[in-house]
Amino acid sequence: MKKCALILALSLTTSVHPIYAKLTLKKALESAYFTPQIEAKREETRAKHELHVQAKSGFLPKITAGVSHQKQQSVQSDDSEGRDTRAKTMQFTDQGYVALKQNIFKGGSTLAAMDKANADVYRAWAELEAEEQKVLSEGAAAYLELVASKKNIEVSEQNVKFLKQAFFAADKKYQVGEETITNVSAAKAELIAGEAELISAKAEYDNAKANFLFKTGLKPEENIEEPAVPTFMPKTLDLAIGLSDDHNPNIKSTQFAIDSADAEADSVTGALLPSIDFSVEAARQRTRNKKPQLNQAGNLAAGNTFATPVTVKTEMSIPLYEGGEIRSKRRQSLKTITAQKVHLQKVRNEVRQAIERLWNKHAALQNTFSAYQQVVKASNQALNSLVEEQKAGSKTLLEVLKQQKEHFQRQKKLVDTEKDYLKNAYEFTAVMGILTPQRLKLDVKVVDLKEDYSNTKVQF
């Protein structure tokens, strides 16, 4: 019987020949780090980087160019006595222009908009970090389910093998009158139940393989390495709480949400202050009269005239009353800041509660796992003793079958307890915010969006 043992040190650097390659937790998490689910989130986060460029545009000039064509027609009539004349004139004006407008002061709204953009980008980073750790945690859970379901198949196969031997031995004894039909029937019933357990275990393994493929993008292999608890687990509850305060992505995201709301309030306040703009517009106009006219020399001319007007303007506008809309938005922004601060405290309390719950669960599962290791060991010894005593005639087959059934259930319980213990450990580190590729020592190029953000900020 394969013993379940807890590995206390995680080895991530062992390399083996491809023919004997194992499916490892490290390999699974490296694949999970680049699944479509997380890649889509990364692209959404990169899109947020453009918020800085959009906010910065308030500092830059706006340059426009355009052309226009205008047709003007007038009709003059003289209905005085003795006259009945009508004069019709038609004038065409073509114009091309270039205009530049530069904001000089906008009540600080542009600076506030840039601060808000930065806060929103940092918040998106925190949300991405949360998604990455969720993906890694789910990948670890899928791997552990795969390992546990495979162990359950092995345990069920051992159980079926034992029950087959017990049934065939009982049947042979029955043929020579040394065993009762009751014991033979009981052995057969236990065998059928054991085979049903094996079928169920194989179905669970197939489900675990499908879930593992979905979560990690890897096809499960038959040779699976035994996982271990993370080596970077904190030693004390206080240390775990301190790490969560500094690293939990939800806490960081809410903190940046407060910064964003604060900058939004400043931006709205700026709309209540004076705004100063400088503008320059240069145009080229041509006016044509369809009806020829006499020029200064007394000759008929087509009537084309040209002009190049240039307008330079500095304008200051002061909002006096805007119907209460801006002031209402400012009050709304201030209330949003208060709400976000309250929400931050709520998030911190929730994280602390989760940390304490997972810490206590971790300790309980660790003790339970250790206890079940001893239980299975003692149960196996008891089973072996009963088998020997049955051979000697002091114990019955029914007693052996009962002990085997209890031993089988304890083996399954040990497998499930080990799985729950390890899953809780990875969930615990994810809630703290430290389940990162760096701490896991994954051989991946960690996606760092800072470079992309720096490159985006200098674009115009």
Count of helical regions: 11
Shape: elongated
CATH class assignment: Mainly Alpha
- What is the share of helical residues? 55-70%
Mean pLDDT equals 88
Measure the end-to-end span: 68 Å
Q: Low-confidence spans: pLDDT under 50, at least 5 residues?
A: 1-20
Would you count the extended β strands for me? 7
Strand-residue fraction?
5-15%
CATH-level-4 superfamily name: Outer membrane efflux proteins (OEP)
CATH architecture: Up-down Bundle
Number of domains: 1
Radius of gyration: 40 Å
Look at the helices and sheets and give the structural class: alpha+beta
Tell me about the biggest sheet? 5 strands, antiparallel
What do these coordinates show?
- With 460 residues, this protein is α+β, with helices and mostly antiparallel strands.
- The protein has one domain (18-61, 108-272, 325-457): Up-down Bundle (Outer membrane efflux proteins (OEP)), CATH 1.20.1600.10.
- 61% of the residues lie in helices and 15% in strands.
- The chain is built from eleven helices and seven strands.
- The protein has helices at 25-32, 36-48, 50-56, 109-175, 181-216, 237-247, 249-270, 325-392, 397-432, 437-440, 450-457, and strands at 62-78, 85-105, 275-289, 293-294, 300-301, 305-307, 310-317.
- Strands 1, 2, 3, 6 and 7 form a five-stranded antiparallel β-sheet that branches. The protein has a two-stranded antiparallel ribbon with strand order 4-5.
- A hairpin with a 6-residue loop joins strand 1 and strand 2 (85-105).
- The longest helix is centred in the C-terminal third of the chain and has 68 residues, at 325-392.
- The radius of gyration is 40 Å and the shape is elongated.
- The chain starts with 24 loop residues before the first helix and ends with a helix.
